[in-house]
Amino acid sequence: MSVSARIFRSQLFVCIVLACTFLLSSCHGKNKSKHAQKTQIIIAKSETPVQRLYFTGTLSPIKTFAVVSPVAGNIASLDFTYGERIIAGQKLLVIDSKQLSDNYRKAVQDFLQKKQAYVTGKGTFAGTQALFNAGVIAKNEFITGQTQFDNQVLDYLQAKYALEKVLRTANIDSKKIEALSLADTDKVNAILETHFRHIEITAPNAGVALFPTGKKSDDSSSSGKLTVGDSIKDGQLLLSIGDLSGLAATFDVSEVDIDRIHQNMDVIVSGNAFPGAHLKGYISAVSVQANLNSGESGLSMFSVKIDIPSVDKKIMEKIRVGMTAKFEVDIQSSPRIMLPVNAVFEKNGQSMVTIMDAQGKQKTVPVITGDTTPTQVVIISGVKAGDKVVIP
Question: What is the pTM of this model?
Fold first, then answer.
């Protein structure tokens, strides 16, 4: 082989070696670049973890007012329907009451008799006092007359109070009766006929008419839906009036989460019936007693009440009493170190995190983790605020 051929082969070999070296270094650089792009360094810091809990329940008026029967009797007419919006002072129903009629007769008769005795006794005692002042009768006789008159005054006042109580029930002006005497029987009967066959029950407040709670029974003061002709008792719940200036709701929380629920916590309310609207409420009461029989399913449940003080009028027009809603409660814990979920990996059954020390070297440290959200995990120990954490 000639000298020139050997030189050519040597040069070709050198070129091939240089080309291979260049290709290898280029690939290594790309791998390093890709690795650098995948690795991220973050600074660990203390954050307040927030866990969102969701519950469901039904909406109700923020307040309710009870309408009870002032007398025993029968429903003569109903002038409302349950679920109807009513105004204050609106006539709701009419009651016929034989018992009130009997009470009225007795109270009027007793009052008129006691009134007559009082008027007569007043004149008699005035004469007795004049005779005593003139020295005609003894002191003992005067004291006896005074005691008798005092008793007549007391009887009269008691009879007057009893009558006024009956008259208030029937919405009768007591002056119409107190001006009568025993001889005015026809006038007494006329008042009786006018008022006691039609005792009107009116709405004490504006709102929506709601079904009375409880079950109808002979020994219960509450009943179900009223109908014309129903027999009712004195003090029986006829209906409730719901105040729709705001809303309220109750939902159940398990024994696992109840210790994290407290009064005055904010609640966000949403529902399928009013899409896009988010009502702001707060927890107004948390039960300290488990619901009856709730533990039979494995976990005891506790009732939580929320209030929604104000609702936009346009939204309220879409809402009906008894609609279902979803309630969001944000549970905030004490500040903790929180890292992205992918910053933590497992090695030999131990949770680990890679950190970078002051010299820029990476090292893995064991950590204890806490609550986890879809994107973050709480670090209880092993990493402190300010540490540089490597995210692969």
Answer: 0.59
CA distance 305 to 257: 15
**What is the Cα–Cα distance from 47 to 379, expressed in whole angstroms?**
11
**281 and 303 share one domain:** yes
Kindly state the tokens that stand for 379: 């670090």
> Tokens 């927030």 label which residue?
50
The pair of structure tokens assigned to 102 is 């009997």
Amino acid of residue 181: S
Beta-bridge partners for 237: 68, 222
DSSP state at residue 354 = E
User: What distance in Å separates the CA atoms of residue 324 and residue 302, rounded to the nearest whole number?
Assistant: 19
Run of H or E including 175:
helix 174-178
CA dist., res. 103 & res. 162, Å (int): 10
**Cα separation of 365 and 56, whole Å?**
43
Q: What is the CATH number of the domain that holds 385?
A: 2.40.420.20
pLDDT tens-digit series, residues 81-108: 998 999 999 999 998 887 777 777 788 7
Residue 316 belongs to a domain: yes
Nearest to 49 by CA among 368, 332, 385: 332
Q: Say if 43 falls within a structural domain.
A: no
- The answer to whether residue 8 is domain-embedded is no
Query: Which contiguous run of DSSP H or E holds residue 178?
Result: helix 174-178
CB atoms within 10 A of CB 266: 12
Q: Following DSSP, what letter does each residue of 137-168 receive, concatenated?
A: S-HHHHHHHHHHHHHHHHHHHHHHHHHHHHHH
What letter does residue 296 receive in the DSSP assignment?
G
CA angle 246, 248, 249 (to 5 degrees): 155
The list of the chain residues with pLDDT below 70 reads: 1-38, 169-174, 176-197, 213-223, 295-297
